[in-house]
Amino acid sequence: MDNREQIIGYAGENDLERLCIFSNLTSEKADKDKNGWDFEVYSSNKHQKFSDLHKSGLNFKIQVKATDSQKRKIQVKLFNLRALASDPYPTFFIIFEYDSTEQPQRAFLIHIDHKLQEKILERVQKSTKGVENLHKSTMSLTYDETQLLKSLSGKVFRDKIEEYIGTDIQEYSKAKIENLQNCGVDNDDTGLINLTNLSEENLSNLIDVLIGVKEDITLKSATIQEKRFGVYDNPKPISSIQVSTPKSHKNDCKISFKWKNDLLYKYTFEGYSLGFVDKSLPDYQNRLAIHSDFFSLVISGNKTINFKIDIDNCKEYKFSELLKRWSIFKKMHEPNSETTVRIKKQGSKEIKMRIDSISVSENELNEINKIYNTLYSLKSLKTYFEIDDDLKISIQDLAQHFDKPKMYYALLKGECHALKFEFTLDKTEKSNLEKAVTIRPFVYDLKNFRLLSFLRFEGGVNFLNGMDRYNWNVEKVEVVDRIAINVDNLEDFNLKEYKEHLYQSLDAIEGEVIFFDGYNYI
Question: Per-residue pLDDT averaged across 383-407, rounded?
């Protein structure tokens, strides 16, 4: 360093101290070789309001540079830059330009903001000389008119500081520390874990976690290498680590199910794949998993297939979606069935496989068929009453519907099945009555819909001796009217008015007896 550089270097420090004095700030000289900055500057909070006493006053670190040049570029040791970038308090450079005079002609204030912090730390991370030799490497910092102090006064200096960092140092430091922790980290690839003394069982469990078959596993004896700015740090030992399956996935494949000579059952689902592929692994450990919200499929390197269907009995599905899923479920459990599964993964060749019938007991198969038949009967009712897909239902809900929808739909289609009714009439009508007609409202409650139908029953009448009652054998059933009422609108529906309107629209038939009872619930 020549004599002029040394002189203006001392002058620059004095000029910084002068600015601090006139801006009501206290500056303390630091050990440059030890700290990486020249001064720590702070203000007391003795003039703050009582309600603000918990807040810190201004507090920042600053390094001073003095030059006769106007190139607007300085070289700084990486050691100093790292200290300023990683310190939780605000940090600055102030550059005094002297233009070969005895007084500074202008000054520039460089704030180590988030952007410059990341730039410095990336340069440190990629230093070829290593962290221990940062004092041997330098980095260029440039500055321009946007960082110029409009005058060399204490007020302008303090105003510029507060423009950069505000007055709440606690919040500032919190944000700087957060940026320090996250800068340079790629969220998709944050580090490298090396496991030692991994048993065969733990390896298998780890692979299951990585492909989403198991949720997590705790492993002992490992090292971790943090990755920042694309560079791995030196390995650090850790006593144990918990590995979990990533929670967010993107659909990257389509899976279709098909059965031989059965085009009615070809369904496609969207899914995602998770694979742990390593040529050094044996085939039985190397595997790929395909997941959807309906099933999981694991394909091992030795061609072993593990297929699992997951239908939540308590979860409500759109009716059409539940019928689709249960149809596949039923098909795959039918004796001697063979399911063809095709998986088309983005950027890969199609995978085709066959899955044999899933074996279950006769009772379990009967239960599967019972649920399917109930769903199919509900589908017929749903179509008949023109209910859209807003209807949602669960497997658990179906327990209260077994056989009922089938019986109701049979009535709507005119199947009498030797129905018999008994009714009472006035004695004056007994002698002439041979046939009777009745119109009755039948109700079926299906989740958030009430299915109401008015059925016309016709049949022969027999007088029961000794009683004022008649036995009536139904011979014919017809639907007079039908309506699906959303339960939200049920209070607005007036059954009495509806029946009167319906009665007026019917042509009276001589000899018929038309009467209404209350609701007949299925």
Answer: 84
Gap between the Cα atoms of 338 and 266, Å rounded: 13
Written as one letter, the residue type at 272 is: Y
Give the tokens for residue 113: 């903001």
Contact 159, 167 (CB under 8 A): no
pTM of the model: 0.56
CA distance 483 to 451: 6
Measured distance CA(400)–CA(332) in Å, rounded: 25
The C-alpha angle 439, 445, 447, rounded to 5 degrees, equals 160
* pLDDT over 50 at 43, yes or no: yes
Q: What is the DSSP string of 40-96?
A: EEE---TTS-GGGTTS---EEEEEEEEES--S-EEEEEHHHHHHHHH-SS-EEEEEE
Q: Which residue has the tokens 């049949």?
A: 459
CA-nearest of 476, 458, 477, 475 to 412 is 477
Dump pLDDT digits (tens) for 366-392.
999 999 999 998 898 888 888 876 788
CB neighbours of 178 closer than 8 A, spacing ≥ 6? none
What's the token pair of residue 475?
């011979």
| 432 CB neighbour count, 10 Å cutoff | 7
Alpha-carbon span 365 to 242, nearest angstrom: 41
d(CA 470, CA 462): 6
To 10 degrees, what angle do helices 404-412 and 362-384 make? 40
